[in-house]
Amino acid sequence: MNSETSPRWADRLGTGTRTILIVTTIIFGLFAVGMVAGFSYAVLEDGKLPTKPLVWLIFAAMVALVALVGWVLLSLFRSIYPERMSRFDKRYWKMWAIVIGLSFPIGIAVGVLGLSDQSGGFSLLLSNAPISPPTAILVSVVGSILMIATLVIYFRAIDDHEERAYLWGSNVAFHFLALAFPFYWLLARGGLVPALTIGAALLIVLLSCIVQAIVWALFKFR
User: Fold this and answer.
1) Is the dihedral of CA 131, 113, 203, 93 positive or negative?
2) Both ends of the chain: CA-CA distance in Å?
3) pTM of the entire structure?
4) 61-92 residue pLDDT tens
5) Interatomic CA distance for residues 143 and 103, integer angstroms
6) Can you tell me the distance from the alpha carbon of 60 to that of 56, in angstroms, rounded to the nearest whole number?
7) What is the band of 122 on the pLDDT scale with cuts at 50, 70, 90?
8) pLDDT band for position 183 (50/70/90)?
9) CA–CA separation, 80 and 192 (whole Å)
10) Cβ-count burial 116-155 (b if 16+ within 10 Å, e if not)
11) Strand, coil or helix: what is 37?
């Protein structure tokens, strides 16, 4: 059986598995881009190139990871629409390319801002490390503009089926938050978990976004 007739790895996946992979790969891709951006920012801030081979090996691995994420996403999307696409499908996936492209600056900003927290790691997600006022204003304004732009582009391109999927995802995500925050608050009062900080609250919001994306994708691609 030649390569033209043999199924690709993504074609062998079930709808649910493919859906979860698409969502998690996009999220993982944003973090991978943020890692590359954070490394680049550290080099620029230091003013000289690293001399240790291990540092460059780690950077090469991060770039390779971004490329791998792109290849996985391309394979997954091709498995959804393997045949010749209609004009609507072409416009739809062009929209997604634009939306994902607009989301990359957010991942880059996360990577760059993470360098401002001297405790290292991914502490940006759970800390309130100070950043300069101009940076806070710039990231807030640019992030808000990009998010509003992606919403406008998205809702102008989707059909009724996907609109229903989005509404279901948003509904489930809302109820996830409505349960998660009181539940965490009670556990914190009982001394079972740390007190609810802004960082922890943002992490719960991030989890709600993942829930929303998974439910949306399950309804969209079922």
Assistant:
1) positive
2) 29
3) 0.60
4) 888 888 888 888 878 877 766 555 677 777 87
5) 9
6) 6
7) very low
8) very high
9) 44
10) ebeeeeeebebbeeeeeeeeeeebeeeeeebeeebeebbe
11) helix
